[in-house]
Amino acid sequence: MKFEKPVAVTDIAALIGAELVGNSQLLATGINEIHKVTPGDISFVDFEKYYNASLNSAATIIIINKKVDVPEGKALLVLDDPFSAYVSLVKKFRPFEPASKSISDTAVIGEGTIIQPNVFIGNHVKVGRNCIIHPNVTIYDHCVIGDNVIIHAGTVLGADAFYFKKRAEREVIYDKLESCGRVIIEDYVEIGAGCTIDKGVSGDTIIGQGTKLDNMIHIGHGTVVGRNCLIAAQVGIAGKAKIEDNVILWGQVGVNKDLTIGKGAVVLAQSGVPSSLEGGKVYFGYPAEDARAKRKEIAWIKRIPEIWEKVKDLGK
Amino acid sequence: MKFEKPVAVTDIAALIGAELVGNSQLLATGINEIHKVTPGDISFVDFEKYYNASLNSAATIIIINKKVDVPEGKALLVLDDPFSAYVSLVKKFRPFEPASKSISDTAVIGEGTIIQPNVFIGNHVKVGRNCIIHPNVTIYDHCVIGDNVIIHAGTVLGADAFYFKKRAEREVIYDKLESCGRVIIEDYVEIGAGCTIDKGVSGDTIIGQGTKLDNMIHIGHGTVVGRNCLIAAQVGIAGKAKIEDNVILWGQVGVNKDLTIGKGAVVLAQSGVPSSLEGGKVYFGYPAEDARAKRKEIAWIKRIPEIWEKVKDLGK
Amino acid sequence: MKFEKPVAVTDIAALIGAELVGNSQLLATGINEIHKVTPGDISFVDFEKYYNASLNSAATIIIINKKVDVPEGKALLVLDDPFSAYVSLVKKFRPFEPASKSISDTAVIGEGTIIQPNVFIGNHVKVGRNCIIHPNVTIYDHCVIGDNVIIHAGTVLGADAFYFKKRAEREVIYDKLESCGRVIIEDYVEIGAGCTIDKGVSGDTIIGQGTKLDNMIHIGHGTVVGRNCLIAAQVGIAGKAKIEDNVILWGQVGVNKDLTIGKGAVVLAQSGVPSSLEGGKVYFGYPAEDARAKRKEIAWIKRIPEIWEKVKDLGK
């Protein structure tokens, strides 16, 4: 996320009680987890093995748990628990604002858009023109919805990322990484009933123009779905996946995090996608492979008894 | 769907700007996509390979993109884009009516029925007697619910069919087929929490008397589920499937569109059903097959290393 | 469930019209199905093969369809249809209380807890301190929620158990076992959007302290999830399962009823768990097995054509 206006790094240091090392004149323009950093961002690192990646990333200000050499022009904020410091900054700059009504006064709703009863629209939400938002939909704070979008009943946009740091030494071991990303729904998207699309941890979860989702689809934090995709019911896509344009996922497909499904790929029903897939092909099964090869594999399995008989005969 | 009263075919031609060929005295009594047509219906066809099927169907009035020979007693409405003309008729005769309140004044609720808070009941909905509709349920316009039905919280009845025409030449390639069918829930049905049952494209999605659905079940457009079926949590059934009486589907089963599962069939958990299944048997796996045969197959797979050892020995 | 105050067994007998055999001085302190009985409980049995289990259980008062020898200190309530008698007691002592408003006056909400708009909170619900209940959540009567709990939008806690008795001789063959159990959510639990957690038939469904659930997870009646578990999106767990502490279930996993997943077990995405799993191991596939063994199995399947070639060569 980006701040509304830049904040002096000295103010950030004071807020989280960190020792400032390096360029103390810097202005922070946003806050992002490591996968989403851009220049001006504050990020954090708390494992030594990720120090280099973090120090060499686009991030300008790094919250870190060891005083190391500062890269040229950057600043370190040194303290014991960078994760908690990062979370406290998220809470400070993107605080949870409890709602006083079902449709926030700070939400902007475009002309020609119909909001059905029992819908919740949170703070700072933007909904475009000529949309239909069906009953009992929930749109969390900061979501952005384009023009000519249809969202069916019961769908939830912008719930928190499912992202925790393990603290094995504590009684409650999972420590929540507060999310400050958004959900962005582009023009002409239709989302079925009972879907859930989570906000990004610090970046955006995006559903591209013209993409159509059936019912009960789950899309994890920071996943980017391209244009003109077709996603059938009960598909689940984990966080930070990239689904390129014109992809078709049939019913109950599961897609792992941090991977890419290439343009125009088709994944048949109930398949599981553990790693990236090239575009332009049809896939099936777990792990999802070329559908024809997979069908042959199924046929081969049925021939095992015949092979065994042949082997027994040869043994005689 | 059927019209409230018949409409002259000449009026239909004028509405959509089509050339009328054939019997101009006809009255249209309804509008249906090709799989659901009955006499009196208007239907449409836009692929030459489906012309014969459409012209020989029960449909009385066919919207078509070529002037062909008219079957005896029928009428053709000729224009360039039959799909868009059909959609415009659906919008005309079954317009979306935005709600002004959570429970429409045109809804009819039977005696003894309890509607819990935060429920949405749309226009022209009928709910029978002695039902319980739990909180945050959404019932779209025109749904029909019998007596002694229980619907648990968060369930959505009557969202739009997931049905699009591909227009590869456009920027937004999926063109929505507007649905005008209904959802019909018969007596003594219980539907769990968080289910979604879509309306038919032009016919009805039906859940038969005494059938019980667990939570988070998706049922696609136009699917007909028989009486006394048992469907466990997270099952997904695609559009236009026929599930006969006394079928049992266990958890997370996926069922393809346009197929029949015969009376009394049992499909074990997580199975996938790509094509029709005979009644009275137990099925398992993907593709769902006789459960005992499938278990044997799993056992054979475990024997492959043993077979290989034997083959290696023979080779020596 | 336990009664608010003990009830004379003679009153119970009169209520259900049963013949009382055995100790007529007893006080009933609760009502439970056979898997959950404790001393003082009323339970029921209607199959001769379960008579011994029921008579020798902790239950003090047994509703039964045959006059048999009464165990020392117990009482039998004899009538033709014990199931219906049991259900009538549930309805008497835990009646459905229709709501007159979205948040019941009998609900107790702790300090610092934020309830967002469009939430339903039923009668006798307890919500602890510093919780956030997001929009369109439904919490049925009698649920108990601890401190520092987050529940995301559209989630449903406490819907009825999916539990029916088959009455093959009737037109509507599935007869509902009314549930009187509860859902208990312990401290520091986070539940994602669109989840459904059913109440127990007579005992409690429990989510243990610090456990984190992603979106669209279904948890069946009476299931007990331990502390610090991590459950990814679209997982389904059937009724009366026991998930021990620190278990991780990845996306779309399905878990059967009446089993135990041992402490610290990890079940990889899309796996199916038909029976109990030992703790401390990683599992995969259907049926879920040691993940490394399963991966080898997948590799062996790919070698079948090679084995077949070798067999053919040997045959020459």
Automatic annotation (TrEMBL), chains A, B, C:
Transmembrane segments: none annotated. GO terms for molecular function: N-acyltransferase activity; UDP-3-O-[(3R)-3-hydroxyacyl]-glucosamine N-acyltransferase activity. It comes from the Bacteria. SUPFAM superfamilies: Trimeric LpxA-like enzymes (SSF51161). Coiled coil: none annotated. Residues 29-90 form the UDP-3-O-[3-hydroxymyristoyl] glucosamine N-acyltransferase non-repeat region domain. It comes from Chitinophaga silvatica. This is UDP-3-O-(3-hydroxymyristoyl)glucosamine N-acyltransferase. Its EC number is 2.3.1.191. The keyword DNA-binding does not apply. Keywords: Acyltransferase, Lipid A biosynthesis, Lipid biosynthesis, Lipid metabolism, Repeat, Transferase. GO terms for cellular component: membrane. GO terms for biological process: lipid A biosynthetic process.
